[in-house]
C-alpha cells in the first residue's frame, strides 16, 4: 500500500513528468538486424475514441482493411489515464494494432484491462461496426506501466492473452501463473519501482519464455508521453509475438540478440526457454 505522502506526491510528479516527456526528444531506438527503427511511426493513420470504460486507438481506415488487427490491452499507472501515454498508444496503433486502454487510474487487478477484450469481441461480431471481422482475437498482448504493469501480469492469467510486457510493474501480481512469452522492462534510474523488484518477477517466470532488461538512465516517468526508449522495444516485441514479423526476432532471440549488448539495454537476462528460440539463420 502507498503512504498518504506518496499518494499526494505522485500526481505532482506525474504532471511534471508529462511536461518533460513532451519537451525532451525520445532516445534509444530499438533496431532489428534488418535495420528497422521500431520507434518510428508505422504506416497507419490513427484515430481514437472512448467507448464505455475503454479508450480505443486504432487504424483510421480499419473498416476498409483487408487484415485482422491484433489487440494490445493497456493499464495506466497510479493516478494516470490513457491521455498521459497518448503518444505511445498512438504509436502502437500506427503499427497496425488495436489498442484498448482501460479508463482507470487503478488498473492493478487487470480486470479493467480485460474489459477491452470483451468490448472488441462484441464489436468484432456486430454488423455495422467498423471493427466487424477486423479484430484478430487469437493474438492479444497485455502491457501497462507501474500499477498497470502489475495489472498486465494479472490480466495475463486470462487464457485470451498470448504475450505480456510489464513496464516497471508494481508489486501486486503473481508472475508464476503467466502462460505466454513475457518481456519485463525496468528503468536503471527508477527509484519508485526499483529494477530489483522487476527482476524478481522475471525470476518467478521460469514456466514461460521470459526476458528482462533495464533501459539505461530511465526513470519511472520515462514511459509517459510517447514511451521514450521503451517505445521501440515494445513495438518490436509485439510485432514479432502478435504479427509474426520476423524482422524483430533477433532483437530478442539468438546468440547475439540485439538488446544483449551495447549501452542502451543493461543487465539483460533471458531464461532457458528463451535461449531455445533461435534468432535469424
From TrEMBL:
Cited InterPro entries: AB_hydrolase_fold (IPR029058), PET_hydrolase/cutinase-like (IPR041127)
Record-level GO cellular component terms: periplasmic space
Subcellular localization: Periplasm
Pfam families: PETase
Catalytic activity field: (ethylene terephthalate)(n) + H2O = (ethylene terephthalate)(n-1) + 4-[(2-hydroxyethoxy)carbonyl]benzoate + H(+); a butanoate ester + H2O = an aliphatic alcohol + butanoate + H(+)
Record EC number: 3.1.1.101
Source organism superkingdom: Bacteria
Annotated ranges, domain PET hydrolase/cutinase-like: 48-250
Lipid metabolism recorded as keyword: no
Keyword tags: Periplasm, Signal
Signal peptide range in chain numbering: 1-30
Gene3D superfamilies (alphabetical): alpha/beta hydrolase (3.40.50.1820)
Record PANTHER family: CARBOXYLESTERASE TYPE B DOMAIN-CONTAINING PROTEIN (PTHR33428:SF14), CHLOROPHYLLASE-2, CHLOROPLASTIC (PTHR33428)
Listed name of the protein: poly(ethylene terephthalate) hydrolase
Organism: Actinomadura rayongensis
Phylogenetic placement of the source organism: Bacteria, Bacillati, Actinomycetota, Actinomycetes, Streptosporangiales
Amino acid at each position: 500500500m502507498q503512504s498518504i505522502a506518496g499518494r499526494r506526491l505522485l500526481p505532482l510528479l506525474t504532471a511534471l513528468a508529462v511536461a518533460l516527456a513532451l519537451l525532451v526528444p525520445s532516445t534509444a531506438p530499438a533496431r532489428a538486424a534488418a535495420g528497422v527503427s521500431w520507434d518510428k511511426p508505422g504506416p497507419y493513420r490513427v484515430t481514437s475514441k472512448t467507448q464505455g470504460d475503454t479508450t480505443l486507438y486504432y487504424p483510421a481506415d480499419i473498416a476498409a482493411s483487408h487484415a485482422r488487427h491484433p489487440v494490445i490491452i493497456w493499464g495506466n499507472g497510479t493516478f494516470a489515464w490513457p491521455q498521459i501515454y497518448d503518444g505511445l498508444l498512438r504509436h502502437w496503433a500506427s503499427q497496425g494494432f488495436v489498442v484498448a486502454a482501460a479508463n482507470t487510474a487503478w488498473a492493478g487487478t487487470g480486470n479493467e484491462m480485460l474489459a477491452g477484450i470483451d468490448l472488441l469481441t462484441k464489436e468484432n461480431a456486430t454488423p455495422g461496426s467498423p471493427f466487424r471481422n477486423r479484430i484478430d482475437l487469437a493474438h492479444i498482448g497485455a502491457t501497462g506501466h507501474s500499477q498497470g504493469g502489475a495489472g498486465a501480469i494479472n490480466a495475463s492469467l486470462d487464457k485470451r492473452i498470448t504475450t505480456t510486457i510489464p513496464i516497471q510493474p508494481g508489486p501486486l501480481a503473481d508472475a508464476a501463473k503467466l502462460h505466454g512469452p513475457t518481456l519485463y522492462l525496468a528503468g536503471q534510474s527508477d527509484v519508485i519501482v526499483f529494477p530489483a523488484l522487476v527482476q524478481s518477477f522475471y525470476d518467478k517466470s521460469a514456466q514461460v519464455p521470459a526476458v528482462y532488461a533495464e533501459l539505461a538512465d530511465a526513470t519511472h516517468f520515462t514511459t509517459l508521453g510517447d514511451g521514450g526508449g521503451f517505445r521501440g522495444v515494445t513495438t518490436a516485441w509485439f510485432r514479432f509475438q502478435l504479427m509474426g514479423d520476423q524482422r524483430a526476432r533477433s532483437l530478442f532471440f539468438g546468440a547475439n540478440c540485439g538488446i544483449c549488448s551495447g549501452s542502451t539495454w543493461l543487465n539483460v537476462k533471458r531464461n532457458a526457454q528463451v535461449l531455445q528460440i533461435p534468432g535469424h539463420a
